[in-house]
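Subject: Serine-threonine kinase receptor-associated protein structure
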Amino acid sequence: MDKKKVAVPLVCHGHSRPVVDLFYSPITPDGFFLISASKDSHPMLRNGETGDWIGTFEGHKGAVWSSCLDNNALRAASASADFSAKLWDALTGDVLHSFEHKHIVRACAFSEDTKLLITGGFEKILRVFDLNRLDAPPTEVDKSPGSIRTLTWLHSDQTILTSCTDIGGVRLWDVRSGKIVQTLETKSPVTSAEVSQDGRYITTADGSSVKFWDANHFGLVKSYDMPCNIESASLEPKSGEKFVAGGEDMWVRMFDFYTGEEIGCNKGHHGPVHCVRFSPTGESYASGSEDGTIRIWQTTPNHSVDEVAKKIEGFHINKEGKTADKLSDA
């Protein structure tokens, strides 16, 4: 009988409440980075490969529902229940600007050219802020039919993609006209929407279904029923041959993109999985949970059970080991 391969994740502690959003930066000259949003109101920045803590962004007074990095990982943004979105210096942790809203802000995203920031939430209004004119009033796009849950840019910042908390479907907005030009229909509200790294697919999770849509022609490419209600899904960015999904049963599963067959199941979280995202290299993926931890899993586990047991037995904590410096003033 073959020795079963097991996935041993890097476990990242630090958040005191549920982790509700994860975002990887693209690969930069300094590597790639992972930012996490949590109900504890403190977004955290980590080395995307090792999970090592770099710093904590302090300033929000309510749960942070969404956080992201610009393409160079020099600035961060966050959306919070304290009725604000904040722009941060990702190197120092300083708040560069606070964008005040009139209700809970659920989502934020930098444009591809990093010049704009879009926000959305309970007000049902999409706001586009010019990051070169921080004090200028935002451009407001037509009212959303429901409270905004997720948003992202596509088509070189010509289109905005949104989903709502209380109604199904994904809406595609034309930035210039401010109008909805297409709706991707789903039975349940979409809790996760991701544009693939190559721009070909939109990956969505709604209810117990994961769907893949053509990002240019908007047709449904694949739809797979999952073993439980799924909150988040992510497509492997390099080959696009597999995807991961996580939800209410606390497990993080990997599936074959072409067949929908389950090819891996990672257990370890002690609460529902709220978010999963592949790293930009495709070699690992992260999951965030109600249990307050982030786990970083290798895409291809390369250790048998016996090998892992031996490593654990021989593992000694290095008391001289260095810890990452906290962001100054963060």
